[in-house]
Amino acid sequence: NAGVTQTPKFQVLKTGQSMTLQCAQDMNHNSMYWYRQDPGMGLRLIYYSASEGTTDKGEVPNGYNVSRLNKREFSLRLESAAPSQTSVYFCASRRLAGVSTDTQYFGPGTRLTVL
Amino acid sequence: LAKTTQPISMDSYEGQEVNITCSHNNIATNDYITWYQQFPSQGPRFIIQGYKTKVTNEVASLFIPADRKSSTLSLPRVSLSDTAVYYCLVGDRTSGTYKYIFGTGTRLKVLA
């Protein structure tokens, strides 16, 4: 049981390049989330998927797209990277709503630098 | 979504009890209060969650007054390894579309 995994761990891009961040969870969770964390700041929600087949915008969706490929996988795509997207990206998943203690489980993060 | 306010930073010494207070004045009836811990270069990790009064687990206690407009995370007898950033979140956990809003958190430094 690996929990939430993310690839790659590190990435350097040039302005204008595109890339996809991958996230997978093996806990049979319904909801999945993408956050970004800038230095010294809290996490900000980019996009989320409440269940397989649905996605919705969070606080800072501009410049990003997502795909909920199946129940396990939720990818984040940067179509044309900008230096302002330099950040650490975290993926998280959440158990079905309504259980006694509901929590999000986070992956290890992807550190992205855009030059 | 309810906004939370926490102190930016706190210092403590090993063995002391640490209390971190979070203000959430516009908490809604269905909202729960959740605390996360984050170490450098890692994703946040769940600590504790509650709705009202007091909740205790093996690592912390959570105190919530009757009006629920604030909450206090209590860490008993902290050690150096408790140095981390602590986030308070509020939101409706019963909704499938629930979105967590993280604030800037409280940076706790435990000194020897």
Q: What would you say this structure looks like, in words?
A:
- The complex is a heterodimer of chains A (115) and B (112).
- Chain A has 115 residues and is mainly β.
- Chain A is built from no helices and eleven strands.
- Chain A has strands at 4-7, 10-13, 19-25, 31-37, 43-49, 56-57, 64-68, 74-78, 87-94, 104-106, 110-114.
- In chain A, strands 2, 4, 5, 6, 9, 10 and 11 form a seven-stranded mixed beta sheet that branches. A four-stranded antiparallel beta sheet of chain A has the order 1-3-8-7, with no helix packed on it.
- Chain A is globular.
- The mean pLDDT of chain A is 91.
- Chain B is mainly β and 112 residues long.
- In chain B, 0% of the residues lie in helices and 48% in strands.
- Chain B is built from no helices and nine strands.
- Chain B has a five-stranded mixed beta sheet with strand order 1-9-8-3-4, with no helix packed on it. A four-stranded antiparallel beta sheet of chain B has the order 2-7-6-5, with no helix packed on it.
- The N and C termini of chain B lie far apart (39 Å).
